[in-house]
């Protein structure tokens, strides 16, 4: 009698689980960057006398909205596709705003989480959305 061949079942072979894990990784990456940036904005506002409120104000509001909206969407459905279409464009718009109007040249390094998320998802619709949100500034 021939033995039946057992198929290996991988941990993330199900698309719902795979999207959930991708969203978890992206949530961690984006949330860390947004919290660090919000703390740096707060330090700049409180510790310097020449803080540019018009440059810092819009990204601060966008990062707070992105944190709240992204976490609500993620907690409702961990494998939702709409999570990536909300959080990344908000982050990109705020990053582009800081890159254009901010005085610091190191802002260009904030693109690393964006590139990481684009590589992680490899979604054409998301790439177009990211491009348009950076051009919108």
Main sheet record: none
Alpha carbon gyration radius: 19 Å
Q: Which structural class should the secondary elements be placed in?
A: mainly alpha
Please report the number of helical segments.
5
How much of the sequence lies in strands comes to: under 5%
Count of beta strands: 0
H and E order: HHHHH
Q: Layout of SSEs?
A:
Elements: H1 15-47, H2 53-76, H3 82-101, H4 112-121, H5 124-135
Walkthrough of the structure:
With 137 residues, the protein is mostly helical. It is built from 5 helices and no strands. The mean pLDDT is 80. The protein is elongated, with a radius of gyration of 19 Å. It is 72% helix and 0% strand. Helix 1 runs antiparallel to helix 4 (112-121) and helix 2 (53-76) packs antiparallel against helix 3. The chain has helices spanning 15-47, 53-76, 82-101, 112-121, 124-135.
Summarize the structure.
With 137 residues, the chain is mainly α. The protein has helices at residues 15-47, 53-76, 82-101, 112-121, 124-135.
List key phrases describing it.
137 residues, elongated, single chain
């Amino acid at each position: 009698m021939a033995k039946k061949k057992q198929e290996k079942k991988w941990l993330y072979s199900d698309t719902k689980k795979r999207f959930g894990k991708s969203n978890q990784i992206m949530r961690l990456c984006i949330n860390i960057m947004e919290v660090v940036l919000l703390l740096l904005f707060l330090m700049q506002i409180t510790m310097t006398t020449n803080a540019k409120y018009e440059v810092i104000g819009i990204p601060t509001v966008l990062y707070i909205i992105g944190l709240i909206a992204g976490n609500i969407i993620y907690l409702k459905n961990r494998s939702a596709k709409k999570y990536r279409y909300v959080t990344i464009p908000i982050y990109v718009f705020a990053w582009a705003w800081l890159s254009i109007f901010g005085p610091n040249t190191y802002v260009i390094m904030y693109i690393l989480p964006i590139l990481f998320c684009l590589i992680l998802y490899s979604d054409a619709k998301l790439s177009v959305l990211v491009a348009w949100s950076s051009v919108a500034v």
